[in-house]
Amino acid sequence: MELNGQLALTVLMGLFLVAVAAWLARVENWRSYTPLGSGGGGYGQESGYVSQEKPSGFIRWLTTVDHKDIGMLYGAFGVTAFLVGGAMVMLMRAELTVPEMTLISNQFYNSLMTSHGITMLFLFGTPIIAAFSNYFIPLVIGADDMAFPRINAIAFWLLPPAALLIWAGFFPVPDVIPAQTSWTMYTPLSAGVGQGNQANAGVDLMLLGLHLSGISATMGAINFIVTIFTERAEEVTWANLDIFSWTILTQSGLILFSFPLLGSALLMLLADRNLGTTFFAVDGGGPMLWQHLFWFFGHPEVYILVLPPMGLVSYILPRFSGRRLFGFKFVVYSTLAIGVLSFGVWAHHMFATGMDPRLRASFMAVSMAIAIPSAVKTFNWITTMWNGSIRLTAPMLFCIGFVSNFIVGGVTGVFLASIPVDLVLHDTYYVVGHFHYIVMGAIAFAGFAGLYYWYPIYTGRMYQRSLAKWHFWLWMIGSNVTFFAMILLGYGGMPRRYATYLPQFTDLHQVASIGAFIMTLGALIFLWNFVVSWYEGPVVRDGDPWDLKEDSLYTTEWEWFDRKLKTAVADGGEALPGGEESDAAEN
Amino acid sequence: MAVKIFDRETILDLTVNIIPLFIIGFFLGLFLLYQAWGWDTLPSVLMIGLHVVPLVTLALLTYLSGKAIAGSEKTGDVFHQGQALVPGASEKEHGGAEAEPAIAEAGDEDEDEESGTEETRAAE
């Protein structure tokens, strides 16, 4: 009886999928998309097929292969995931205001912690970077579109199912609970052995979702490598390639070498969980094998996330400093150096595992060496601003915030690279504070610098500048209050990942939570500003809303935007919005 | 016409990667000369490999990227980042100070050195 019910449900779902496929096939003439064969459009132009063939409304977003639309989809997805991941951590920070469990169970705390990490790294970090790279790199390098527009679309559309799988445990599905493995998924806990509850299908679904997001990232990376190598306009030689494209190229190389390894390790783990293999079993390959495989991916992942934001800052910060980027080629070469060296430092995450001291010392040496290229960039940003004509616009503030937070996050990281220091601070809140300075204080700040800087291009309107500055200051203060308190907690010996703590840590935990609530307020202001300005902000009619021409810092994407405004091609059959003129320039 | 790619300017640009190469080389030499934990074939060979592989890979990538960037710099027009396709964008002065103010204002003698030699690309 039960079997028949399942069979009926399967048949019903199959029919539903066939109906969806048939409907999609009807609403759009798929053969009309001839992205590269058409030869339409010069550099940075709206290619002919795009404006003529794009369906209007909702269907446009489901069927688009235009790099700008896909960039927008990545952006919407990334911001949504950021809000979800942020809500998760706010529940955790609320719980951590008191030492004992009050609001939520400790299992639910572990679930939130796991999901917060994976959501922010894989569903916010990578997609928000892909939003900028998809939208702007073809414009800046003079390509008609990405080299493989359909693969680009597929890469994006793998992400929503990946997110659903990763979050599946939170949905009201009977007998499925969220993963509580933390984002590092260390075995044997994640292998589901022992007395715990991690043999649950929720962990399998999370692993599958993570694998899917890895496939998406790999497809995107291949696309970017091919696009930057083969689709550049003649004038855009290697010497003329902008810094953001260089960082995306390097990031794509890192993805290409590291994500397939994560995928393989995940499949091995799934096999251990479901097929009785012993890749990571104590009597088999051993739990240390997982740690090596995971961190061989995991450390490059850190640079996968931080290099493009460094590129964004290197691209945006000089525009509001009234001068060129100091030492442009230093930044390019150091980006490449970071790319290579990032594969030689993975075991500095494992100093406390009891590995051979000779290996430990080797990883320390390379970890020290990788600090140099990062420091070089920091000095370049500071020197660019030195004696410059600085305009404290919202994107510039976020860039300066990036540099400031990156210095704290970077310096605390150099200490962790030293074996004796790491052995004391390993698995404490110091580590949590260090990497949050990087991922939130730097990476997210650069992401929001980009969102504000190019807001006029992708919305055609200007945001409310005072609200954007409120957003920045709340975040700058909030992030430093929270993450510095975490560093102090670490010095005090507070272990990470715990849902409860000793009463002596209460004050600093409460300070950290206050900072997190300040950041939440900033995020709400951002959301309000972002959405309301999109509908009601002053229309930008000038292709140079930041007055970049004054300092000869005008770049290709703004020139494209200016031409778009002047030629006024109706996009997707919609009327152009009217409204008052923008006085977008900030002083 | 043969162009010398690895001239003084290019080498100077590449110092940013030569320093980490030096650090890795220094530690490799140190660990080989002073073996605090003795010699054991497997861990010791792995230790050498963990230094040599990043060292060689970084040296190779630095050489190739230097060749690509400096090579195209010396054989084609060079613009500031993101401006190669902007009509009327000024060319970058080879070897010039990159943090100079981007534009020289009329009558400002202090800032004339860069603008004086600028060429301007014809607007399309």
For the residues shown, what is the average pLDDT of chain A? 91
Annotation field: number of helices of chain A = 19
Shape of chain B: rod-shaped
Overall tally of domains of chain A: 1
Unreliable parts of chain B: 95-124
How much of the residues of chain A is beta strand, in percent?
under 5%
Structural class of chain A: mainly alpha
Can you write the helix and strand succession of chain A as a string?
A: HHHHHHHHHHHHHHHHHHH
Give the strand content of chain B: under 5%
Mean pLDDT level of chain B: 78
Any overview of this molecule?
The complex is a heterodimer of chains A (587) and B (124). Chain A is mostly helical. Chain A has a single domain (66-555), classed as Cytochrome C Oxidase, Chain A (Up-down Bundle). Chain A contains 19 helices and no strands. Chain A has helices at 2-27, 48-53, 58-63, 67-95, 106-141, 149-157, 159-166, 201-230, 243-274, 287-316, 328-341, 357-385, 394-416, 419-425, 429-453, 455-459, 465-491, 506-536, 556-567. The longest helix of chain A has 36 residues, at 106-141. Chain A is globular, with a radius of gyration of 24 Å. Residues 34-50 and 575-587 of chain A have low confidence and may be disordered. The relative contact order of chain B is 0.12. Chain B folds into two domains: 8-75; 79-124, no CATH class. With 124 residues, chain B is mainly alpha-helical. Helix content of chain B is 52%, strand content 0%. Chain B contains three helices and no strands. Chain B has helices spanning 8-33, 41-75, 112-115. Chain B is rod-shaped and about 65 Å long. The longest helix of chain B is centred in the middle third of the chain and has 35 residues, at 41-75. Classes of the chains: A mainly alpha (587), B mainly alpha (124). At the A-B interface, helix 11, helix 12 and helix 19 of A face helix 1 and helix 2 of B.
